[in-house]
Design a protein that fits this description.
The chain is mainly alpha-helical. The chain is 58% helix and 4% strand. It has 19 helices and 4 strands. Helix 4 packs across helix 6.
Length: 364
């Protein structure tokens, strides 16, 4: 509402990403969800006028054309420039990108692709459709089955997550994820359901539980957040961390570590094969053991649900598939949210005619 108060019909130009991204409230409050896209589009179009409203799935396009959603905003900048909404010449904007010195060529390409989206949208979408995806994106040893690939919306959800899980752990871990999603799709097909809401929810929720943020993953994410180009330019990076092992020893504050800690991250990243094994030095805490069991429990629940899903209970199955949304936060916060998860899980399994014992019972 605060942003919309500044809108003036016939003067404001709305250049907006239609990519669904949760707000802070949605991340912390399970009952908050994204409004229907059609409602948002209609509201914006009414407020500024349809001829001054430009919506584009910038995150998807940036990921397909440039390999990362990080360039989505610069893509939108190109769209805004091409519709005449920026009182600057293109070479000034590109010069600023060069002077910024971060991922220069990628950002220049993003800006130019954004301009092209207005100048020749069909051409841009044609190039997007030709980019390698599905099996190529997921990795050479992981091929998405046709069952998933033929459902366009679902395949996009799965391909990114499968690739990330392969990097998170290994291709076998990602393959386990894909197999469960495929079971969900086949179950909906057997029930003659036109909607793939259940399988799409499974794809999102199972990924969330399998890619829990442990020490190895934190190291991977921090390494990925430092562009190689910036490192080569000598940019000094400091991290503020609160390691669980120090917190358990009574240190209830973050510590600052310097550029040298990058090598610790690299060692942790390389040691991810220890995750969940008897040699995992971080895996014995209650939180880590619960996270692993929670993912396994959810996978078992979904496999059981695929055997009983029908048109009549499809909505209940979807509620169960989305249930991991209530598991929020880290460490103690996450553990507290398991109580609500456990109660609701048993209720939904009961409605589906399935027993509901599991790891969450001890926390509810």
């Amino acid at each position: 509402p605060g942003n919309l108060d500044t809108v003036e019909h016939g003067r404001t130009v709305a250049v907006v990403s239609s990519s669904p991204v949760p707000t802070a409230d949605m991340l912390t409050q399970a009952d908050r969800s994204l409004p229907p896209r059609e409602h948002v589009e209609a509201s914006l179009s009414t407020l500024v006028g349809p001829e001054r409203c430009f919506l584009v799935d910038s995150a998807t396009i940036a990921e397909r054309l440039l390999g990362s959603t990080l360039f989505a905003n610069v893509f939108l900048l190109g769209v805004a420039f091409q519709v005449g909404a920026l009182p600057l010449p293109a070479d000034s904007i590109e010069r600023a990108i060069v002077l910024n010195g971060i991922a220069v060529q990628k950002n220049l390409d993003a800006f130019r692709w954004g301009r092209a989206w207005i100048a020749d949208r069909e051409r841009v979408l044609e190039v997007v459709d030709r980019q390698p995806h599905h099996a190529d994106v997921a990795g050479p040893s992981l091929v998405l089955p046709e069952t998933i690939r033929r459902v366009a919306r679902l395949s996009h959800v799965v391909e990114f997550r499968a690739k990330d899980l392969a990097d998170y752990q290994n291709p076998s871990y990602a393959q386990r994820y894909v197999e469960v999603v495929e079971l969900a799709v086949r179950a909906e097909d057997r029930a003659l359901l036109e909607s793939h809401e259940f399988s799409t929810s499974v794809a999102r929720s199972l990924y969330k539980l399998m890619a829990y943020k442990d020490e190895y993953e934190v190291a991977r994410l921090h390494l990925a957040s430092l562009p190689e180009e910036a490192r080569q330019r000598g940019v000094r990076v400091f991290w503020h961390l609160e390691p669980p092992i120090l917190k358990s020893m009574g240190l209830d504050r973050k510590i600052e570590v310097g550029p040298w800690f990058r090598y610790v991250f690299m060692m942790l990243r390389a040691a991810r094969s220890l995750r969940g094994t008897a040699l995992d030095p971080f895996g014995r805490t209650n939180v880590r053991r619960t996270e692993r069991r929670l993912a396994a429990e959810y996978e078992t629940d979904i496999r059981r649900v695929t055997n009983v899903i029908t048109a009549a209970n499809h909505a209940v199955a979807c509620d169960l598939a989305r249930l991991p949304d209530v598991v929020r936060g880290y460490e103690e916060v996450k553990m507290r949210s398991l109580a609500e998860y456990g109660v609701r899980r048993r209720e939904l399994l009961g409605e589906l005619g399935l027993a509901g014992d599991g790891v969450t019972s001890a926390h509810s």
